[in-house]
Design brief:
Blueprint (H helix, E strand, L loop, with lengths): L1 H15 L7 H26 L7 H12 L14 H8 L4 H11 L2 H6 L3 H20 L3 H14 L1 H13 L5 H8 L17 H12 L2 H21 L9 E5 L5 H13 L3 E3 L25 H6 L10 H17 L1 H5 L1 E10 L17 H21 L8 E6 L7 H12 L3 H15 L2 E8 L6 E5 L9 E2 L2 E3 L9 E4 L2 E16 L2 E11 L2 E6 L6 H11 L9 E7 L2 H10 L7 H4 L4 E6 L18 E2 L22 E5 L5 E8 L4 E6 L2 E2 L17
Parallel strand pairs: 1-2, 1-3, 3-4, 7-15
Antiparallel strand pairs: 5-6, 5-17, 6-10, 8-9, 9-13, 10-11, 11-12, 13-14, 14-16, 17-18, 18-19
Length: 680
């Protein structure tokens, strides 16, 4: 039946290419999208016949480029994937909607490589149905309604499958490629259906040049960090049967070794693709494995295509499907251990163009989106309890980081494998000082205007309790930091960073004001208009919330990473995972202990970390929907922008930790060794 539906839909689309039954101004759009569908059909035929197996590297690259060429930056100003161009050609009424439809249909690239023929049937039939409407004389509301009902009707296909992909190791498309391919033959990269650039090829080639012992070391620190994350939080890993591996293509040699390591722990790999549908994506963010991002502006332009769907009825429908699916696969969900992420960094910082023509969520839809995120998180936590799962994250550079890519890559390997014991001792010295305080004051310097007081929890038993966690290299690799969940009441002042890169987006002159631990005001200088700057921050830092709490205050101690960043001029390209270890940082959103606050956590010295809650997260005991914001964004001040960080004790004594970018607390001086002559 699926095959028959497929053939009928493709046949009809092939006929459309020569017809002139729609208004002239829409013909080019339908022929362009139709040509893409026929390209997918041709790809399907080649996959089924095994033709690609005989293709050379050059031939595979050419075909891959053909699939993605319509949205690449060089031609994007002439692509219907660009809402601005679509609006210019099709009008303000239809342009954004039809551009969103094209973006949705482009998900067919992933579906054809995974041989999800039912998905192709659904997409192609949707395209034919909308074409038929234009033959009869289009009504924009009817077009929108058709897309809406497509999403609603097939929610139990796309959303349900997405959940199964996340917990069921037997859905092994990517895992099979990694296991079964000859990784020395880089043609395997084109088997995933992702866009492959020179970056993924160069990454894979560099890994091939590394000794097997180095690959093993990289995989070991990654998987061992994951295991230790369970140990340090008192969670039982033996109850778990699967772990999710997230990474960027090109890293398969390390991932293959990591799979072996996880299997020795009793964990089967779950490796799923980043979402490609408006039903399964979270804005422009990539969650899952993916290749090169063909065009970040394209991804950004379509981040809110769900504006066509988002109403109360659809939210309830989606949640109902999720509930039913999780109930169906609850045994698989219960033994899911959590994600293990390999992130890449080094791309040129992306500052998006803000376009009037893109679909955006209205105020009511923003409220619905926030509500959905909350209810979704609660649902997931029911079936995959937060106090039973963990994670780990590690990061490596991409070739775009510069001419010294290989050298930088090897330096990051060194940073990711630094001796945790050395940092553990120094960090405990910092914690001993911090535990004496009622609050910490952070002052910026060298043009940084930060003046922020962070209120600390009080200790009842100093012999057994502590405020800060001594974080070395478990869930967050590399070492090291000390962090706490601040007391919100009494946490006041300004946080300022001259330049920072958050969730793949750059912010210039970011300023956030806190009043009793909650964001009271914010601005940056990315755009000329203040309103645009505020909207940019609200959407991507506050995630459309009216405010967020200061969920974490930390002091990063990895001066080695900091010096490496300065040496190679890559400070603005460092991922937050490493950047947060390169100075004091402040996370807006949930605490580091969200969903697991009641689990006792201990430092290596045996003291219990009691600062796991704040006055917002504690609301979970009354109404869980008020306790969490479902985001956590770290913002780091670099050492050279620090004038002073000091602890204030109950009797008014000041204990200096950092002055003029250097550690001054006795016992921490070793951290200054890498800093010598760095920015003096």
């Amino acid at each position: 039946m699926k095959e028959l539906r497929y053939e009928l839909a493709v046949s009809r689309i092939r006929e459309m290419m020569d017809e002139e039954t729609v208004e002239e101004k829409f013909r080019d759009y339908f022929r362009t999208v139709g040509a893409f569908v026929l390209l997918i059909d041709e790809t399907n035929q080649k996959l089924r016949s095994g033709s690609f197996e005989k293709y050379s590297m050059e031939e595979l690259a050419a075909w891959n480029a053909k699939l993605y060429e319509d949205i690449l930056p060089d031609v994007y100003d002439r692509s219907y994937g660009n809402p601005a161009y679509a609006t210019e050609k099709l009008g303000a009424e239809y342009g954004p909607v039809l551009s969103a439809l094209y973006a949705e249909i482009r998900g067919a690239i992933a579906y054809v490589y995974e041989q999800k023929i039912e998905y192709l049937d659904i997409l192609f039939e949707l395209f034919v149905e909308i074409y038929n409407q234009f033959e009869e004389g289009p009504v924009v509301k009817n077009v929108q309604d058709t897309i809406y009902w497509y999403a609603s009707d097939y929610c139990d296909v796309f959303v349900a499958d997405r959940i199964l992909d996340q917990v069921d190791a037997s859905r092994s498309f990517a895992t099979d490629i990694i296991r079964e391919s000859d990784l020395t033959d880089l043609r395997y990269l084109y088997s995933f259906g992702e866009y492959i650039s020179a970056s993924e090829i160069r990454t894979a080639r560099h890994l091939l040049e590394l000794d097997e012992s180095v690959i093993a070391k990289m995989a070991d620190v990654y998987t061992e960090g994951y295991r230790i994350g369970f140990v340090n939080t008192g969670k039982d890993l033996t109850k778990k049967k699967s772990a999710n591996i997230r990474y960027v293509l090109g890293f398969e040699r390390v991932v293959k070794k990591a799979i072996e390591n996880f299997e020795k722990m009793g964990l089967s790999p779950v490796i799923y693709r980043s979402g490609v549908s408006m039903l399964t994506k979270r804005q422009h963010l990539k969650i899952g494995y993916y290749g090169a991002i063909a065009n970040k502006q394209y991804e950004y332009d379509h981040r809110d295509d769900q504006a066509l769907l988002l109403d109360k009825k659809f939210v309830e429908r989606k949640l109902e499907v999720m509930q039913t699916t999780y109930e169906h696969c609850k045994d698989l969900a219960r033994v899911f251990a959590g994600p293990a992420c390999i992130e890449m960094f080094g791309e040129e910082p992306f500052v998006p163009e803000v376009k009037e023509e893109v679909l955006t969520l209205n105020e009511k839809q923003q409220e619905l989106s926030v509500s959905f995120d909350s209810r979704q998180s609660q649902l997931v936590n029911t079936y995959i309890p937060g106090d039973e799962r963990s994670f780990t994250i590690i990061a490596y550079p991409v070739p775009e980081i510069g001419d010294k890519y290989e050298e930088i890559f090897d330096e990051i390997i060194r940073i990711n494998t630094l001796d945790a014991k050395v940092y553990e001792k120094v960090q405990q010295t910092l914690i001993d000082a911090l535990d004496q305080g009622t609050c910490v004051r952070i002052l910026g310097g060298n043009g940084n205007c930060t003046d922020l007081t962070v209120q600390l929890h009080s200790l009842k038993d100093r012999e057994k309790e502590t405020i800060f966690e001594n974080c070395v290299a478990d869930v967050n690799i590399p070492v090291g930091e000390v962090f706490t969940s601040p007391v919100l009441e009494g946490t006041n002042g300004l946080l300022h960073v001259s330049k920072v890169y958050l969730n793949e987006l750059q912010y210039q002159d970011l300023k956030i004001t806190f009043a009793n631990g909650m964001i009271a005001d914010y601005n940056c200088k990315n755009f000329e208009r203040e309103l645009e700057n505020k909207e940019y921050i609200k959407e991507h830092v506050l995630h459309r919330q009216a405010t967020l709490p200061l969920g974490e205050f930390a002091i990063g101690t990895n001066t080695t990473a900091y010096v490496a960043a300065k040496k190679y001029g890559i400070e603005d390209k460092m991922p937050i995972l490493i950047a947060e270890k390169m100075g004091p940082h402040f996370a807006v959103g949930d605490t580091c202990y969200s969903w697991s606050e009641d689990i006792k956590v201990y430092n290596p010295n045996g003291k219990e970390i009691i600062a796991r809650d704040n006055s917002v997260s504690i609301l979970r005991k009354e109404d869980v929907s008020k306790a969490y914001y479902h985001c956590h964004t770290d913002i780091t001040i670099p050492y050279e922008e620090l004038k002073r960080i000091y602890v204030i004790t109950a009797d008014g004594k000041e204990i200096s930790l950092i002055e003029n970018g250097e550690f001054v607390l006795p016992g921490t001086e070793i951290l200054n060794e890498p800093l010598k002559n760095t920015y003096k």
